[in-house]
Amino acid sequence: MFTMKFSVIVSMSLTYLFGAFASNLTTDAVVPVSGTNMGSIQLPNGDTRLYYQDQHNGSIIEMVISNAFTIGVFEESAVLVPSSQVRSNSPVAVSLVADGDTFIQVHTFFFSPENVLSQYYWDDVLGIQGGPNCLTCVTNKGFVGVAGSQMLYAMASSATSPPTLRVGFVSAGAPNTISEAVNTGSGWSVASLST
C-alpha cells in the first residue's frame, strides 16, 4: 500500500512539474513566416534585419530581430516593398553600408514584374527610398534581368568614400554570364564578367 501511494504521489508530482515546464515552452510563441526567398544583414550592434518575399501576397517584408535568434527576439515586421513592384518568386539580396559602429544604409535588391533590377533602401538621413520614381535607385537605370533567374547578390564596401555598391545578376543583355551593376557614388553602371 505504501508503494502504491508513493508511486501515485510521485506520478502526480512529476505530472505537475513537467506540466509546468511544458506550459512554459508555449510562452515564447514562434513567429509565423511564409516566405519564398530571403536575404539578411547584421548591424554593428548585433541587431538583425531579414527581408523575404511573402508567399501569400508577394510583397517584400522587413523583419527586425534584436540579435541572433539564440539571444535575440522578434521586434516587428512591416512591408518594405509592395507586391505590385516585385516579380513573383523574385530573389532578394541585401547589403549594409556601415561606418564603424554606425549603420548608414541598408539596401534591398529584387526584380520587378518586368524583370527590372530594382532597389529599396533605408538611409540614416533620408529614411526609406525606393520605387519606380527613385532617382538614386538602380531601378531608375532599367537594367533587365533574365526572366525567372534566381541569381542575385549584393555587396557594399565602406572602404571607399562614398561607399561602393555592387549587385550581381544575370542580365537579359548578356544571358550567358553574370553582370554587375556598380555604384561608386556617381550613379549606376553595368558590366558583364569578362576575362
UniProtKB/TrEMBL annotation:
Name of the protein: Fucose-specific lectin
Task: Please provide the record's keywords in A-Z order.
Answer: Signal
- Signal peptide positions (record): 1-22
